[in-house]
Specification:
The longest helix has 20 residues, at 39-58. Helix 3 (39-58) runs parallel beside helix 11, helix 4 packs parallel to helix 5 (98-110) and helix 8 (196-209) crosses helix 9. This protein is elongated. It folds into 2 domains: 2-135 and 269-298, Response regulator (Rossmann fold); 136-256, Rossmann fold (3-Layer(aba) Sandwich), CATH 3.40.50.2300. 42% of the residues lie in helices and 20% in strands. The protein has helices spanning 6-9, 11-18, 39-58, 72-85, 98-110, 136-150, 166-179, 196-209, 221-234, 249-256, 272-281, and strands at 2-4, 27-34, 62-69, 90-93, 114-118, 130-134, 154-161, 183-191, 215-218, 241-243, 292-296. The two termini are 28 Å apart. Strands 1-11-6-5-4-2-3 form a 7-stranded parallel sheet, sandwiched between helices. The protein has a 4-stranded parallel sheet with strand order 8-7-9-10, with helices on both faces. It is α/β, with parallel strands linked by helices. Pfam families: Peripla_BP_4. It comes from Labrys monachus. Keywords: Signal. This is Ribose transport system substrate-binding protein.
Amino acid sequence: MIKIKSLAIMGAIVALAAAPAFAQDKKTIAVSIPAADHGWTAGVVYHAKAAADEIKKAFPNIDVIVKTSPSAEAQVSALEDLSASRHIDALVILPYSSQELTEPVKAVKKAGAFITIVDRGLTDPTVQDLYVAGDNIAVGANTAKFMVQKLGGKGDVVVMRGIPTVIDDERIKGFQDVVKGTGVKVLDIQYANWNSDDAFKLMQDYLAKFPHIDAVWANDDDMLMGALEAIKQSGRTDIKLALGGNGMKEVVKKVIDGDALTPIETPYPPSMIKTAIYMTAAQFNGQAPIRGALKLDAPLITKDNAKEFYFPDSPF
């Protein structure tokens, strides 16, 4: 596995743009992604459509078809429809959930497609030819290290996780591995589905259930925003930290402003889908296919470096 910084991976984009366009048969890349049901996936949809438009304009031999799906079941149906209506040379997919999409993606691979998995891995990693994601274990671990240090090695914490996926499992594992053996006690861990409204309700439940909470970790920024609103409405003053992850611009702005509850953040850029599409398309423009697993770093975003990660005009 290769770990790289986000700027380094842009070399694939430059390489594709610089490569000569060879006369070739038309190639089709299908891009299957979740619908924009929260901020991060809205960013994914934005960058996927941008990549499709750019590649189709620059390389007439490559057709990129982007399909969004509001659920795992809908994504399975979308894959079946795509496979039935045309030959797919490559599939770039961010699975809505890991288990439900593994077998359908296997079927696409069996038909001869190159498979690029983005972000949410499948339960069988042998299906993928290329995997592009952030370092989810580091997202959890780096957040936990900061939290443990800031709390002085002890305290009561509640955790919000997303939906059952490989990346959610990895973030939780990274967090738990760090806090294990410290004086930090995890009072409860529940799913909030990477959804602000669900997180608001879950935080209300946590506040009602536990009279004292030192810190909250929501492993996604949409959930963090819901948790922060619930804390604000409760008037509780015992909570010292409320941390998230993914690099949402609203959260990065809190870090820039020196927010006491949310003084740090971890990046997880939705633009990774664009990088994955370009790297997949490169093989149809005279380059050998890139195989393996590429992971982006997950450094802490602090007040000192936050401006580097702040893009107010971005969709996320």
